[in-house]
Amino acid sequence: MIFYFHTTIPLLKNSYPTSNAFDILWVTHNYMILSDDIHILHNHCKTHNGGIVQLIWDEFLKIIKEEAGSQVVETWFKAVCLDEWDCATNTATVRAPNQFVNRWLQDHYVELLKTHLARLLNAHGLKLNFTCSEITPAQARPRTIMPASVLNSMHSTQPPSRPHTPPFRMPHSTAIIPSKTEHVVQVGKKNKEHRGNTINPQYLFDSFIVGPNNSLAHAAAYAICQNMGKAYNPLYIYGGTGLGKTHLLHAIANQVRAYDPSLIVQYETSDNFINEFINSIRFDRSPQFRSRYQKADVLLLDDIQFLSNKEQTQETFFHIFNVLYEQQKQIVLSSDTFPKEIKGLQSRLKSRMEWGLVADIQIPDLETKIAILKKKAEAHATALPDEVADFIATRVISNIRELEGALIRVNAFSVLTNQLISLELARKVLLNLHEAKREGVMLDNIVRGVAKHYAISINDIRSKKRHHDISVVRQVAFYMMKKLSYCSLQVIGSYIGGRDHSTVIHAIGKVEALIKQDPSFAQKLKTIEHDIMVA
After folding, report:
1. C-alpha angle 249/251/254, rounded to 5°?
2. What is the reported pTM?
């Protein structure tokens, strides 16, 4: 039943004459309008943490979920709230849980916030004020990450001093971050006893090349080292093979150990985790197995997708996860796909994997690949001309391992034949590599080509229309843009109506399934691709 306060309804209409979602939320919510909220809004023109503010934010989340996808809501807006609305200054205050989310909202979602909050609040020219929930000294762990430059002077296994380190902030630019000098991390005795798989000391944050394809995953991995167990727990990193997931996990381990060698850092591949669990059952050592992982301060589990269909292993991992999470110990997982898309994994595990932050790593763009090649060549003391780096980067598409493999082949041939590395030599060595995607194929050209073939407008492709015919064409556009350009999934999604990368992944999967099922559809796509390439 809905209750109306007749004496207050005119008050609302006078304050907000336009009948919109804001009015509807006030008047037609599940139970009744709170007279106190109306009094505050009308007389003081300001609400702070009131019920009506929460209603507005709930409606905003529904809109964002519809427009940008549930993953965006779960990742960025779930822990955010509309803290205050001041109609006198036309300002809405948005509160984030920490500085990292605060900065990310400002860098990526300001327009989305302004557009929909302005409509819901019936506020033209809305101003946004961003703030974050501060952690009190009593709540925060006294942990600070040592700057990398200090590691050169370390000559003992004693815990280093803890200088003040400013809070982590996302860089404003997506430009590639050059690497610094690599350092060897020393490990305390306690840690050696519990370290599991060997941590590669060369996999550091300083040696990780950051570009638009991996900036979120890198920033999140670095952030959790400053506030373990609280910043993002668990951190779930997913992406294709050879894109840097394992590098980040090792970098976290090395950074944590640099701070405090006495901390127990447990890194393991899922394959070894499963084999170790099987042996624990075989030799009746299950309690010892579980206890070893539950003592970890940081648990890093690589390639979590291999737990698929391993029911007993999943059950044990579930209990280990719960113990570590309740003790605010940091959990970091990696996989080749989004949690919900892992088949044969328990729903409760999938849910827990999404509790923290889910960050993806995509195929690097051309500039990032060139920077990686330069860094690898520098590490191997190899003189790599710019034109050769550019050639290798355009020939290798799939992943960083293949990129490094191509560089090793060129360098090996150069050494064995006593020739300097040149463009001619690189072309000879890499003759059998598949042809690169054509440079300069712009997203605009791809969308125009798809729209022309299906005889629909570009506006329809970019619209929110869900008619089946339009949806199929939109999915084809996503597929072609990914196939024919170097753009990231995020860029592609933004170009087509501001959609998120999970929508693009879903669309590409649909098209790939249709290609397998329908030969005529596959042939049609080849025709579209040909027309775009020769245009």
Report:
1. 115
2. 0.50
Whether 399 and 241 have beta carbons less than 8 Å apart is answered as: yes
Residues 6+ apart with CB under 8 A from 375: 178, 179, 207, 209
Residue 299 has what DSSP assignment?
E
Give every residue of the chain whose pLDDT is below 70, as ranges.
1-51, 70-71, 133-197, 397-398, 432-442, 486, 534-535
Distance of CA 169 to the CA centre of its chain: 16
Full DSSP string of 155-178: -SSSPPP----PPP---S--PPBP
- Rounded to whole angstroms, how far apart are CA atoms 409 and 398? 17
461: left (phi over 0), alpha (psi -120 to 50) or beta: alpha
What's the token pair of residue 3?
């209750």
Q: Residue 54 in 3-state DSSP?
A: helix
- Sheet with 357-361, side-by-side order of all strands: 265-269, 298-302, 330-335, 235-239, 357-361
Tokens representing 497 are 């109506």
Burial of residue 199, with CB atoms counted within 10 A of its CB: 0-12 exposed, 13-18 middle, 19 or more buried? buried
In Å, how far from its chain's centre is CA 150? 30
- Please report the pLDDT score of residue 398 as a whole number: 61
C-alpha distances out from residue 506 to 104, 224, 301, 336, 354, Å:
24, 29, 26, 15, 18
DSSP string, 453-471: HHT--HHHHHS----HHHH
H or E stretch at 305: none
